[in-house]
């Protein structure tokens, strides 16, 4: 297989490669490609094309741009295989950030340098409002979106390789998770008693459930006799419309054991709710939402979060997000010595590694306690005997000389 190139203008080269014969006509076929850059860039592209032809991995260049592919990928793949929230997030980042900067590049001509340039510029001036750069964590998220989209393009035959795999995204600094300190819990609950959604806030702190999971919880999912909750759906609000969706992942479908205090609280809450519904002439159904308006309609997640912030201010506590009640639940359990596997199951994490990576830094002294426990597990007599022998032996001449 042969190929050659020719300079068309300054910084522009055309490459011709022989791609074999047409099976119908028997005529030889050539593929042309325009390369922008130096002669060395054109030579490198020619070598790569010839190598891919010899290896049988050559893919005919397409005129589709990266922006067109990202939009097609979001509509045809992401919308089907990802949750509604993830799909909406991907589409938002693609349309707000990726397409305006990278969208015009032809998909086969996308190079690692394009992505590196985008990441560096995004950190400096990537915000849509023009007021500075994006966080390293956000740029990491963009890298993940691009990598997944390009990986799918490889599977579909549009690309021979995923150029995102050759690029390292910026490293994000680990931030300390905000949480409700144990000593502040009584003040928080006292302030919450006089505000709406007290039972909701209590359940969030005592179970670590996500807000959407709490707002999608039905009475048929709560077993007060066995003191447990089954998480099988979540409420999601989009464009002002609330709907029930599948949990975030397969592990998010889980059973959570209730503490005695929470079981008693929910039992009394259900009795009060039944009394209210009887007055309205609509008895409470098993399919009814646990946390809802008095008429059974779902609560607005934004209103719940706003009320939560007001309760914190009233209690004189530092501001945290509603989601940080989930972090508080996990942190308290881990500090109490509960096995991370149990904590992971209660939170619905995909695997225990996520739990350990997220919360290990809030457990100072774990290494020290592990070393102490190792001694405790062995027979005290054996350890004492070994220590006595070492002391009796005394320092060696070598160690004294040092």
Please provide a written account of the structure.
The chain folds into 4 domains: 3-42; 66-166, DNA polymerase, domain 1; 182-359, Intergrase catalytic core (hpI Integrase, Chain A, Orthogonal Bundle), CATH 1.10.443; 363-393, no CATH class. The chain is 51% helix and 11% strand. The protein has 16 helices and 8 strands. The termini are far apart. The model has no long low-confidence stretch (mean pLDDT 86).
- How much is the average pLDDT? 86
How is the largest sheet built, in terms of strand order?
A: 1-2-3
Q: In which range does the helix fraction lie?
A: 40-55%
CATH topology assignment of the largest domain: hpI Integrase, Chain A
According to DSSP, the number of beta strands is 8
What series of H and E elements makes up the topology?
A: EEEHHHHHHHHEEEEEHHHHHHHH
For the record, what is the CATH homologous superfamily label of the largest domain? Intergrase catalytic core
- Look at the structure and give the CATH class of the largest domain: Mainly Alpha
List low-confidence stretches. Answer: none
Distance between the termini: 70 Å
Main beta-sheet strand count, sense and barrel state:
3 strands, antiparallel
